[in-house]
Write a structure and sequence with these properties.
D-Maltodextrin-Binding Protein, domain 2, 6-stranded mixed β-sheet, 14 strands, globular, DNA binding
């Protein structure tokens, strides 16, 4: 099968419009439509429902996208870097990720990086921001996806914003269509992260600003333990949708938006000034990380807003990430 047709299919699925996809690809719209018809004939299925507003995937089309997007991207990366000296780099690279991001980012990111750098051994450490920062400062972690921190020993580049939702057990009355006021959190037994940075910091700062008293009934540094406590009906917690979406879909948890005010938190990539990576290698790692995050958020796989900063914070000479 012609992989170009698969690329065209994936671009149309992403744009939701044949005309927009044609403009992005630099292909005439009639020619693009013909390629999709040929792909549908080859497969014997209909991939898109056509409407006056654009196109959307059929059930068969959605299955094709979910099964081909990642492998096709890995193939493209492997071909792109096959002749590059970067493909011959042999070393280890340890990524750190906060628990709420690891479940949605780790697998697709490592698949992308492995395709580009087949001789690099990638490892992932999952921990809260405070612990990851300490391990980076000791040289035990190369790069980390963390919440923002005020530490002038780190370079930090913003990546995404995630809205936070209230999460309850399967018998709670939470609903995605019924927002819960932030002040109502004061009446709930909350399961909160042990670490002061990240979601707990967001909750406590918002409560302080609104003069609302919230307390933790339970504290844990484990995302899975927090969700287990909530599923058992012992309390409520606050998470980004990406960290609880599968549990909500399976009926193990329920969630509702938070309002008055809506609350969110940021995630970005951090490194230390002492980062010891070849310059070009570090640059490519950063590019692929941002491309992968952009792809995941645009596709809806990661319920977050991709908002990369254009500079590091604080103002140090920028490492090439």
């Amino acid at each position: 099968m012609d992989t170009h047709r698969l690329k065209y299919f994936l671009r149309i699925a992403e744009e939701g419009s044949i005309s927009r996809a044609a403009a992005v690809l630099g292909v005439a719209q009639p020619a693009l439509s013909r390629q999709i018809r040929l792909l549908e004939e080859d497969l014997g299925i209909v991939l898109f429902h056509r409407t006056r507003r654009g196109v959307h995937l059929t059930e068969e089309g959605e299955r094709l996208r979910s099964s081909t997007a990642a492998p096709l991207r890995q193939l493209e990366l492997a071909v792109r870097y096959a002749g590059s000296p970067l493909a011959r780099i042999e070393r280890g690279l340890l990524f750190g990720m906060v628990p709420t991001a690891a479940g949605v980012l780790a697998a697709p990111l490592l698949a992308t990086l492995s395709a580009a750098f087949p001789n690099v051994h990638f490892r992932v450490a999952v921990a809260e921001t405070d612990e990851l920062v300490q391990r980076m400062l000791k040289g035990a972690i190369d790069l980390a996806v963390i919440n923002p921190v005020s530490d002038d020993r780190l370079f930090y580049r913003h990546l995404v914003v995630e809205d936070l939702v209230l999460v309850g057990g399967p018998t709670s009355d939470l609903s995605p269509t019924s927002p819960v006021c932030f002040s109502d959190l004061a009446t709930l037994p909350l399961v909160m992260p042990s670490a002061a940075t990240g979601i707990r910091n967001t909750l406590e700062n918002t409560a302080l600003r609104l003069k609302v008293g919230i307390t933790a009934r339970f504290s844990t540094d484990s995302l899975e333990v927090a969700k287990n406590l909530v599923e058992a009906g012992l309390g409520y917690t606050v998470l980004p949708p990406a960290a609880c979406g599968a549990d909500v879909d399976a009926g193990r948890l329920r969630c509702a938006p938070i309002c008055e005010p809506e609350i969110s938190h940021q995630l970005g990539v951090a490194a230390t000034a002492a980062l010891e990576l070849p310059r070009e290698f570090a640059t490519k790692i950063g590019i692929l990380l941002r491309e992968e995050v952009a792809r995941l958020t645009k596709s809806g796989f990661w319920a977050a807003r991709f908002e990369p900063s254009h500079s590091w914070d604080p103002n140090f000479p920028e490492p090439q990430l």
